[in-house]
Amino acid sequence: MALISLLLLAALLPYLGHSASVKFGIVNGTEANPHSRPYMVSVQMNGFHICGGFLVSEHFVMTAAHCWKYGMNLTAVMGAHDLRNNNFKRIPVKFYHIYPGYKHLYNDIMLLELEKPAHMSANVNWISIPNTNKDIETNTICSIAGWGKTSTYSNASSHLLEANVKIIDPKKCKEDWKEHFSNVNMMCAGSGHGFCQGDSGGPLVCDNIAVGIVSFLEKGNCDKPVAPNVYTKISNFLPWILQIITSVNVGIINGTEAKPHSRPYMVSIQFKGQHICGGFLVSEWFVMTAAHCKDKITAWGDVTAVVGAHNLEAKDFESIAVTEHYAHKNYHKITPNNDIMLLKLEKSTANSRNAAQISIPKINAAKGHSCSVAGWGCLKTNGSRSDVLMEANVRILPSKTCKEQWSFYNDATMLCGGGHKHGFCTGDSGGPLVCNDMAVGIVSFQESNCDHPTQPNGYTRISRYLPWINKIIKSMK
After folding, report:
1. pLDDT of residue 459
2. Which among 49, 81, 292, 328 is annotated as catalytic?
3. CATH number where 207 lies
4. How far apart are CA 227 and CA 63, in angstroms?
5. Which of 44, 60, 327, 397 yields a CA-CA distance of 20 to 30 A from 84?
6. So what's the pLDDT on residue 40?
7. Do residues 408 and 337 make contact, with C-beta atoms less than 8 angstroms apart?
8. Catalytic-role residue among 108, 176, 339, 428
9. Confidence (pLDDT) at 119
10. How far apart, in whole angstroms, are the C-alpha atoms of residue 195 and residue 8?
11. Is the domain of 157 the same as that of 18?
12. Known catalytic membership, residue 339
C-alpha cells in the first residue's frame, strides 16, 4: 500500500499517519503561457508560497483544507506568473471556511474569504465549478497547474507550470488507495504527469471547469508514483459551497434581544467605560469570565463590572470597580487552555437592582443539552457591538466532533457547541454557556468568521475548575 503525503510546501502541518511526510510541484510539466490561467492563486504565509488555490468568485478562493492550521494568517496572491517580480495583487484572507467534515484526507476543501474583492482584469478572473454532482469520464484529458516542486527533491518553481493529466477509473483508484480513497468525494488522475509539494489546493481543470482540488499522493514519490494522484471532488460539496459564497451575514449570532433583566447574572466587563467582555455573577462578590479578557486590559484600576444592565446606553445599571483578578495560572493563550478568570468586586451585589448570581455545576455535566448564550458582542463579523443584551440557543456537541474540528481541543477542560446558525462573536468572550439554568461553560474561542463558522464555538468547561473556584471564593469570605 502506498504511503501518503499532503502537499503543503513547508512542513507547517502535522504529518499524516506514523510515517507520512511533507516532502513534495507540477511534475514533467511545462511553463504556462503567462496569465493564461487568471484564476490561479498563490496562497502565501509571511510572503512565501505554501499552497495553490483558485478564484471561484470575486470574494472567494478555493483551496485544500490541509493548507491552513489554526493561528496561520494567509494572503492570496493573484494575477501572478513569476512570483519573484511582485507584479501581482495581494489580498489578505478575512475568514477561513473549512468544510465541517474535514479530517486529514477526507473532505479536503476550504474556501478563503478575501478581505476585499478581487476585481476582474486581464490577469485576474475566476473559474467556473460544476453545477451538478456528476463524475468525469475515465480517460478524459484535464490539466493542473502550480508553483510547487518539479520533482521530489527539487526546488519550488517561481514560474507557473502546467501539465495534462488523464482521469483514472475510480475502481482503479480504490484498488491502489484502499480505505484512503472515497468514490464519493475524491477522484484521481495520472499518466506520467502530476503534482508535488506546494501544489496543494490547486485546481484540476476539465473543459475549462475546476472539478477537483489537489489533495494527496504517495509518500516521497512525486516523480514516478505507483498510485495515482488524488483530488477532492468539488461537485460533492456544491450545497456547502453555495451556502458560503452566496451569504455572508450574523449575530450573538442570529440571536434575538433578551427579555430585559431576564438574565440578572449577566455582567458587562468594561475598561475605561467601554465594553470589552462578558461575564457572570457566581457570588455576590465575584464575576466569572475568560482569562483571555485580561489581554485587553493594561490598567486594572480602570476596570469595572456593570451589573443589572440590559441596554448599555441607558445607564440604568450599577458599575462596580474590580479590585482583584485571578486568572488561572495555567491559562495558555495559544491553545487556549484553562481560559477562566475570577474578578473580585469592590462591593457586594446583594442589594444591586436587577442583579443575581447563577449556579455553577457541582459535578461534571452538560453533554448533548440544548443550551443558550448571551452577550453584548458584535452582531456580525467586524460589525458594531449590540447595545442591548442578545441571546441565542446553541447545542453542545459530542467530544469527538470537537476534536475533529479543533486540533488543540481538550475534552477535560473544554466544551464546544453551536454551528452555522447560532453562536457568539467578538465582545461575547467570558459570557456563560447556560444549560438548565446553570452556567456550565465560559465563552472562550471561535474561528475568525462569526457569521458562518465551519468550526463550532469553544467554551471553558467550568466543572473542571471547581476546587480552584471554591478556594478563591471561600478565601475572600
Report:
1. 95
2. 292
3. 2.40.10.10
4. 22
5. 60
6. 96
7. yes
8. 339
9. 84
10. 11
11. yes
12. yes
Asked if residues 199 and 52 have their Cβ atoms less than 8 Å apart, the reply is yes
| Domain match, 262 and 240 both | no
Q: Is 251 part of any domain?
A: no
For the chain (477 residues), the mean pLDDT of every run of 10, in chain order, is 48 29 54 93 94 93 92 92 89 88 89 89 91 88 90 82 92 90 91 80 95 87 82 93 65 73 96 95 97 91 95 90 96 88 96 95 62 88 84 86 88 81 83 92 87 84 95 83
Name the residue type at position 97. H
Is residue 429 annotated as part of the catalytic site, yes or no? Answer: yes
Residue-range definition of the domain harbouring residue 98 = 4-246
Distance separating alpha carbons of residues 229 and 237, to the nearest angstrom:
20
8 A C-beta contact, residue 374 and residue 260: no
Does the pTM surpass 0.90? The reply is no
Q: Among the three residues 227, 246, 265, which one is the final residue of a domain in this structure? A: 246
Q: Which helix (H) or strand (E) holds 213?
A: strand 209-218
Using CA atoms, how far apart are residues 265 and 465, in angstroms rounded to an integer? 19
316 tagged catalytic? no
* Same domain? 166 vs 312: no
Examine the domain organization and report whether 306 and 445 are in the same domain.
Answer: yes
Residue 130 to residue 236: CA distance in whole angstroms: 10
- One domain for residues 74 and 178: yes
Active-site residue, selected from the candidate residues 268, 429, 444, 463: 429
Question: Does 216 lie in the same domain as 281?
Answer: no
